Amino acid sequence: MNRLNASAITWRVLVFVLSLYFLVPLIWLIMSSTKSTGQLFTTFGLWFAFPMHLGANIRGMASFQSGVVGRWMLNTVIYSGGVALLSTLFSSMAGYAFSRFEFPLKTVFNLMVLAAVLLPITALVLPIFLILHDIGLINTYWAVILPLLVNPLGVYLMLIFWDQGFPRELQDAAYLDGAGEWRVFWQVGLPLVRNGLLTVALFSFVSTWNNFFLPLVVLSKGDLYPITLGLAIWNSTTQTGAHVDYPAILVGALISVLPLIIAFFTLQRYWQAGLTAGSVK
Amino acid sequence: MRRRWTVPYLFLAPFMILFLLFYFASIVYAVYLSLFIQRGIRPKVFSGLANYVRVLHDSQFLGSLATIARFGAIQIPIMLVLALLLALYLDGLRNQRLRTYLSLGFFLPYAMPTVIAGLLWGYLYSKGLSPFNQLLAPFGASIDFLGRRGLLWSLGNIITWTWTGYNMVILYSALRGVPGELYEAARIDGASNLQVVRFIKLPMVAPALALATLFSIIGTLQIFAEPFVLASLTFVPTNLMPNLYIYYTAFNYGNFNYAAALAVVLALITFVLSLGMLALLNFQRRRL
Fold it and tell me: B261: closest CA among B22, B57, B40, B63?
């Protein structure tokens, strides 16, 4: 009995320490975004300091280069929203083709999707830059959006959701009622895999929000930057200059992760659904 | 009802067109560009495989591959063991609500942008700001997180912090999939907790663990944002990681033809490695 208790206590301590470890950067970010530059260096990082400077820091961030941070946030929403919407549609269409049809080149196409899973887009950022450069899409919204629409894991997830969520009898009944292929897909099928669509959209939204390498390479105009790229560049230019406006950058970082944290807690069952289905495959 | 043969292709078209453009065409184009040599502002000269010969002798690039191999050999096992321990702990936890809170807390870093994670840890490591060094200061001690010897460990910590929870959720889902009758049967046979873990849980999560290993290896080869951001706070060698070296070759030195050759080689290594892992997994699954 004693031995059991000892091991239970060890586990509990270990798990408590690890929870702290996973939360420390976030706690530090929240505390630090309320401090002035002086307080950042002179007060303990994992606790508040008074008087608070959150308001001043937000103003500092908002006034940087006449409000470019707001523009970066808007861009991030455009990139993430655009990619989530279109890549979910395209993935669900491709997944539908794999789930419902037999066709001569099916194996070949299947292998292509697998290849895309094994070779993530970050491995191809330079080749993608080169081809976008020659098409003339560098420094446009499309340069970020188009490559990220290739979402092979989304195709696999949708294949699973179609297999499970849209009974073949219902599909056949819709054909008998005289519905065409597109109507069967769009009006009868899609509503039934709603949860799957939300799962794929969530993952693609978050991964686009978090993307850095691709926008860094294909964008050089500051007013097209997403927030992640903008903050990183802001940080590196102030590090080399005389004036480092840590508090304003930190408030920007906090604002850039807040929507993700909200999405994280409100949509938790979709995270679970995506990762469970993904690991089964 | 006869269905027209074009229908499945039309459903596939949007995905496949973009796939062909960004995977197939971009690689073909990069291979084409890699066959030329660029010298200053003079026109490019066709040079066959000269760039690839140079890649094979490029000690900077080979060095980055060696670094990433050593890095992965240490970081991936630490991360996956941690993820497995946490998944086992959560699976054995009876308190439903605590289980939800803990799994969310562990998984949260995954939702953070890699750049923001890199930036935050960079500040947490830096001399003036680090709360860890603030805690050590009364003892007259401090840790040089971003020095030459600490840099890779600090980088490994950022990656571990970001991805442990993600892998934990995958392993935890696999554990949840174990049928309850299996545990009951084991209990009736008088198996201890440790035996249940060793003979039921571990074999059941093995496929998920193998898959997590595969994706960790692919991910490790692509690491870019974290060292790139740290480079604004400390000295980071331009060839620390392969993607970093490719980026600097292209965008700091403007040598796009050579960078294209490097990118093709890295993509090839990634692809062959993951294909090999996948074949190994399938082989083992068939043997079981």
Answer: B57
